[in-house]
């Protein structure tokens, strides 16, 4: 968003449109995931994954070629639907069509391929080509085609190891029989959610899964990852290229740490790795929250706008009155309608002035940072020099 919002024809200069472009993808991912479960049961895991890669590639190409915000929005919707399909089906496929001894490692690797805009087509194309050579899920084949076809796939997965093949077939058979029995006890197929809620062990698994997802979202990790650039800028980093490289560092650590469970997941177990991750997340969020509190205390103070040079030219508007109430730079820039205005190289005191409803955050509507009076670093998110920005 640091660069896209500067693309004038794109017209993403308002916070509302930036928020729409960011949030539309996870929103449609939710819709896609709801459709994916039923579709994969009916048509097969492989077909739906191949379809998701096609939709993903189309969305990435549209985003990469977009020349206005509406086309970009369409591309982001396509990406959202594809993410919803993939997020639902790929881990399911991997868990059903991979050797048991490396299953945890393969599922963990699912999040490695996360890229932006046009580059997002690259992993989708790789996945599309790869799936042309991969079989259907043996569990789906057992339930919808036959045991012989399921066994043929398991022979490829386990390289004709009869012990493992027999083990997997028996596990699939028992799971299928339990599902058929549960359906029969409910008087037929019935409503899927109804069967889930009336089957104790499945209900428990559902509640645990939903709770894990809920707390993951409530921790704010997605907001932090989506708005890494904005957070870094708010800590006092002005240069966009520097911000991007710091963001790359954050994403790079996320990428590299994905490989750590590869080495330990089968030995340490899922629960231990989850607890360790949660502990690390708590520490990181506390550091970030504490850093922002410290930055607020260290932030430049705002002076009365009536002490500003040429203050007699100010128009006493409601916007000006609103912004003038903030006591420091941090409070000022937290409000989307206000910006902190300071003289070049002046980082201890400045003025909180209203920003235009649409347009640049460099110029205020009134005061010494209005129009051509504003210097490049006249209006900025936080003054340089705070000693706590490194914590973020």
UniProtKB/TrEMBL annotation:
What's the protein's topology in the membrane? Answer: Multi-pass membrane protein
Q: Name one GO molecular function term.
A: myo-inositol:proton symporter activity
| Keywords noted in UniProt | Membrane, Transmembrane, Transmembrane helix, Transport
Family annotation (SUPFAM superfamilies):
MFS general substrate transporter (SSF103473)
A GO cellular component term found in this entry reads: apical plasma membrane
Transmembrane parts of this sequence = 20-39, 48-67, 73-94, 106-134, 244-265, 272-295
The source's domain of life comes to Eukaryota
In this chain the Major facilitator superfamily (MFS) profile domain maps to 1-392
Xref: Gene3D superfamilies? MFS general substrate transporter like domains (1.20.1250.20)
* UniProt KW Transmembrane keyword: yes
A Pfam family recorded for this sequence: Sugar_tr
Q: Where in the cell is it found?
A: Membrane
Q: Check the record and name the InterPro entries matching this protein.
A: MFS_dom, MFS_sugar_transport-like, MFS_trans_sf, Myo-inositol_Transporter, Sugar/inositol_transpt, Sugar_transporter_CS
Q: Family per UniProt?
A: Belongs to the major facilitator superfamily. Sugar transporter (TC 2.A.1.1) family.
Protein name as catalogued: Major facilitator superfamily (MFS) profile domain-containing protein
